[in-house]
Design a protein that fits this description.
The chain is α/β, with parallel strands linked by helices. The chain is built from eleven helices and eight strands. It has one domain: Alpha/Beta hydrolase fold, catalytic domain (Rossmann fold), CATH 3.40.50. α2 (about 65-75) packs across α4. The chain is elongated, with a radius of gyration of 26 Å.
């Protein structure tokens, strides 16, 4: 082969190699651009959902309605709140001072049935004013008494014993029963025959666990709740993350799991046994209290399918009376749900409780 022929052949090989490299780079750039576009588009959808949620909750929660009822009670001479732990216990563990029970007596002045209302917050916050006070006020409006519990959360829960929020709820129920009626040391004018527990989001997880014989009421020697109402409840904190096709929303679920475990157990790497222990559906038995659930089908923070619908399946398998109210278009955190398809759920849940 001549020198010129070899040069030509080498040149062709070089051109072919350059073209292959160029094609690979174009494919890589195209894939990168596609991934970046996908990430940006899903981010926009997530921001849109967050904006919708914030806008929805601003008007649907009726925070002022709850605050007004609470201020009315306090201005009438009622205590601002009650401590459920003894002074000795609080001296030993100052965090217990943050566990506070708020009393919303029935307007009739009679001993009416009562419900305990638990705020949410992913176990890293517990804001009683956002959704719990308005619900207590609504229960008052319907003729019933209510208590709102501010339980330990965040570092307070982490530094306490595992299941600190359940311990707080158990002690609160004990406190209510021990001070219900008339006579010395009796200041809760409530009917203790057949109480209910209401829980929002993480508060729904707490209510659901307390309603179980294995982890809840029986450990505190108090009666089983007659009914529980779970509002967009975090039933399945350690379930498989629901694949929505949106990495941002999936990340929200993953971070929520880490936070919930950390503040319930004090570790970011709990055992499988611990993980399963705070999934409410694992504690349902045939004698579980009848359960009313309301959940929005547009909830990406606590997806309905992997939480409330999983709970319904287990309730039905165990023959437990239950209702799932699906709030079309509603997002997470709607509280009373004013102006949404969830509006009126409190009245419906009370009818179910008393049925």
């Amino acid at each position: 082969m001549s020198k010129n022929s070899k040069n030509t052949e080498n040149s062709l090989k070089k051109d072919k190699s350059v073209k292959c490299d160029s094609l690979a780079k174009r494919i890589a750039r195209t894939l990168f651009a596609a991934v970046l576009l996908y990430v940006l588009v899903t981010l926009l959808f997530t921001v849109g959902d967050l904006t919708h949620m914030i806008g929805q909750n601003k008007s649907s929660r009726a925070i002022e309605y709850g605050e007004t009822r609470y201020e009315e009670l306090v201005s009438g001479g009622a205590p601002q709140f009650y401590y459920v732990y003894t002074s000795e216990e609080m001296a030993e563990n100052p965090d217990l001072k943050e566990v506070r029970l708020y009393y919303f007596p029935a307007p009739s002045g009679e001993a009416e049935k009562f419900a305990v209302v638990l705020p949410g917050g992913g176990y890293f916050e517990c804001d009683t004013g956002k959704v719990a006070f308005p619900t207590a006020a609504k229960l008052n409006e319907l003729g019933y008494s209510a208590f709102v519990l501010g339980y330990r959360y965040g570092m307070m829960a982490k530094d306490g014993a595992p299941y600190a929020p359940i311990e707080d709820l158990g002690r609160a129920i004990q406190y209510i029963f021990s001070h219900a009626g008339s006579g010395e040391g009796k200041f809760f004018n409530v009917d203790t025959d057949g109480y209910a527990v209401y829980g929002f989001s993480a508060g729904g997880n707490l209510a659901g666990l307390f309603a179980s014989d294995s982890l809840g009421y029986s450990r505190y020697a108090v009666p089983k709740p007659e009914a529980i109402t779970l509002i967009y409840p975090w039933i399945n904190p350690n379930g498989q993350i629901e694949l929505t096709g949106n990495p941002w929303q999936e990340a929200v679920q993953g971070v929520s799991q880490l936070i919930g475990n950390f503040f319930m157990f004090g570790t970011l790497s709990p055992t499988d046994t611990q993980k399963q222990a705070i999934c409410v559906q694992n504690h349902v038995t045939p004698d579980y209290p009848k359960t009313y659930i309301v959940h929005g089908d547009n909830d990406f923070v606590v997806p309905m399918e992997s939480n409330s619908m999983e709970m319904v399946k287990v309730l039905q398998l165990n023959g437990v009376p239950n209702v799932l109210q699906i709030a079309e278009g509603a997002n997470h955190g709607f509280g009373l749900g004013l102006g949404t398809s969830a509006e009126g759920w409190v009245e419906k849940s009370v009818a179910f409780w008393l049925s």
